[in-house]
Structure formats: structure tokens, C-alpha cells
């Protein structure tokens, strides 16, 4: 018997190179046995060497995609990634409220690893104002947490202080990714408003980390779609990304993608 079909929607940008964005999200959903659906906010011309072009879709085109999925396919969880502009953020926030989506994972994508901007600078305030209060889970990396809280983050204590600030800004669960921290040990933290939880792992010495943030947040989304708790979801996401970085595919001549086939439940 097939059993229940769990469904997740990603609202994000397309990465033609297949390692990040919509493509990473859908591959991760699929590997975790969740049916993936998408609303594309922007098309990027991108590969392992960087971002060669960014082409935002119209707000109307994104609204239509979200409506098409919502009225017929009722996702169990929703993830947002590259939203690019203030108008797009306002639209997505409006749709989340309209469809009363609760299991919403907001990955506050700002800059690709190569330095290309994926969010306009003037849209940061809209992200703070409209998306944070709707986020069941927010998954900033350290530089994104710095921008959102307007504070410098160097120590673990400062990461925790920033997580508290983000919680005060309306986020239910803050999951701060530790990839940009110092040293050989990576620490991802979760703050639930009362306590901190830590996931530690060895930093794998590789240049093939393109799409780690999207993949990690997508794994959390897939687990939430299946009804798992946030603690269980982060646990699986951490194990998913660890093996995906350990067993990279070694493709492309720059920063290659992670391996979305590596993890098995
Ligand atoms: N070199 C690495 N080895 C193992 N895990 C990594 C490595 N780089 C990043 N990760 C993990 O990938 C996830 C995303 O991390 P991070 O790099 O902080 O996000 P982003 O890709 O959004 O910048 C986190 O769980 C982090 O611990
Ligand atoms: C279309 C698109 N969306 C998001 C990103 C950023 O993805 P991330 O997982 O943070 O990976 P890096 O770009 O940092 O390697 C992207 N690149 N493209």
C-alpha cells in the first residue's frame, strides 16, 4: 500500500546549475519521500562558477503559481527561499496568510556564496516586517542573522543573543546554521523561545558546498510536512546535509553541488 502522500511547496528562485534554489529543494523533498511543488520567483543563470544572470518573474506570475498549487494540492508545509524584492515578499506574505499556512520555513536568502545578491538591499526591512512573524522556522546563516538583527556575530554567545532577537521579532523557532563560523567544528543552533539546542559536526574540507543552506532548510520542511517535530526535523536535516557534503558529486569546475542522493532514512 502506498500510504499517505505528504506534500511540500517551495517558493524560491531557480538555479539552472541544479545545486541550490528550487532544484535543491525539490531533490531534497523527493529524497525524503515528500511530493515537491514549486512557485518560481526568479530565474537565475547559475553554475558552479557563480551567478551569471538574475531574471525576476512578475508578482502576478508568482501569485498564479501559488494559487494553482494552493487550491488543488494543499501543501502540508511551505518553504520560502530567494524572494528578491519587497513586492515579492509582500505578495508571498499575503498568500501565506490567505491560505492560513502554518508550517512555514523561511530561509532568508540574501547572497549566493560567490557574492551575487539574491535579495535587494531595500527589501531587508520587508523581510523583517512581513516574513519573520509568519515564520514557524527561520533558517539564517550567520551573515543573514547579522543583517536581520543589525548586530555583529563572532562568538557562540552572540549567535544565541541574535537568535533571541529573531524570536522576539516573531519567529517561532530559530535555526541558525553554523557553516560560516570559525574552526573545524560546525555548530547549528535551535532556539525555541526557552532553550537552546546544538547540533555539532565536523567541517568537511571541500569546496563543493553550493546549495548547503537550501538543502538543509528543505530537509527541515520535508520533515515538518510529514508531521515531525522541529527537533526531529533538524536532526534529520543535519544528518542529510552532512552526508550530502561528505559524498559530493565532484561536478563542475567551481563550487560543486551537494549530493542529494546520499542520505537514506
Ligand atoms: N564544510 C561543511 N561540512 C559539513 N557541513 C557543512 C559544511 N558547510 C556547511 N555545512 C552545513 O550546511 C548547512 C548550511 O550551512 P551554511 O553554510 O551556514 O548555510 P548557507 O549555505 O545558507 O550559507 C548547515 O547545517 C551547516 O552546518
Ligand atoms: C536561486 C538560488 N537560491 C538560493 C541560493 C543560495 O543558496 P545556498 O544554499 O545559500 O547556497 P550558496 O549559493 O550559498 O552556495 C542560490 N545560490 N540560488
Walk me through the structure.
The chain has 265 residues and is α/β, with parallel strands linked by helices. The chain has one domain (7-246): UDP-N-acetylmuramoyl-L-alanine:D-glutamate ligase. It is built from 8 helices and 9 strands. The protein has helices spanning 21-31, 59-73, 86-98, 124-131, 142-149, 156-168, 212-225, 230-246, and strands spanning 7-15, 35-47, 50-56, 77-80, 104-106, 137-138, 173-176, 185-191, 196-202. It has a 9-stranded mixed sheet with strand order 3-2-1-4-5-6-7-8-9, sandwiched between helices. Strand 1 (7-15), helix 1 and strand 2 form a beta-alpha-beta unit. Helix 1 packs across helix 7 (212-225), helix 5 crosses helix 6 and helix 7 (212-225) packs antiparallel against helix 8. The longest helix is centred in the last third of the chain and has 17 residues, at 230-246. The two termini are 19 Å apart. The protein binds adenosine-5'-diphosphate and the ligand Cc1ncc(COP(=O)(O)OP(=O)(O)O)c(N)n1. Residues 12-15, 20-21, 44, 46, 81-82, 109, 112-113, 118, 210-214 line the site of ligand LCLJCK34. It holds the Pfam family Phos_pyr_kin. This is Hydroxymethylpyrimidine/phosphomethylpyrimidine kinase. One of its GO terms (cellular component) is cytosol. Its EC number is 2.7.1.49, 2.7.4.7. Keywords: ATP-binding, Kinase, Nucleotide-binding, Thiamine biosynthesis, Transferase.
Amino acid at each position: 500500500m502506498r500510504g499517505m502522500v505528504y506534500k511540500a511547496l517551495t517558493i524560491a528562485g531557480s538555479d539552472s546549475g541544479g545545486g541550490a534554489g528550487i532544484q535543491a529543494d525539490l531533490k531534497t523533498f523527493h529524497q525524503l519521500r515528500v511530493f515537491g511543488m514549486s512557485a518560481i520567483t526568479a530565474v537565475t543563470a547559475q553554475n558552479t562558477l557563480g551567478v551569471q544572470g538574475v531574471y525576476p518573474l512578475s508578482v502576478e506570475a508568482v501569485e498564479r503559481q501559488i494559487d494553482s498549487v494552493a487550491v488543488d494540492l494543499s501543501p502540508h508545509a511551505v518553504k520560502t527561499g530567494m524572494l528578491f524584492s519587497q513586492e515579492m515578499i509582500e505578495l508571498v506574505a499575503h498568500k501565506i496568510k490567505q491560505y492560513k499556512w502554518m508550517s512555514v520555513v523561511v530561509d532568508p536568502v540574501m547572497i549566493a556564496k560567490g557574492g551575487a545578491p539574491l535579495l535587494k538591499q531595500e527589501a531587508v526591512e520587508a523581510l523583517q516586517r512581513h516574513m519573520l512573524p509568519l515564520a514557524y522556522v527561520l533558517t539564517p546563516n550567520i551573515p543573514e542573522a547579522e543583517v536581520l538583527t543589525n548586530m555583529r556575530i563572532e562568538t557562540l554567545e552572540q549567535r544565541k543573543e541574535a537568535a533571541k532577537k529573531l524570536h522576539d521579532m516573531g519567529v517561532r523557532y530559530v535555526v541558525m546554521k553554523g557553516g560560516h563560523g570559525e574552526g573545524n567544528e560546525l555548530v547549528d543552533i535551535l532556539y525555541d523561545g526557552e532553550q537552546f539546542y546544538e547540533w555539532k559536526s565536523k567541517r568537511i574540507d571541500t569546496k563543493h558546498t553550493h546549495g548547503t543552506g537550501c538543502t538543509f532548510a528543505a530537509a527541515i520542511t520535508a520533515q515538518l510536512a510529514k508531521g515531525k517535530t522541529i527537533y526531529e526535523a533538524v536532526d534529520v536535516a543535519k544528518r542529510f546535509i552532512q552526508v550530502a557534503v561528505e559524498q559530493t558529486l565532484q561536478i563542475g569546475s567551481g563550487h560543486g553541488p551537494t549530493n542529494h542522493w546520499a542520505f537514506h532514512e
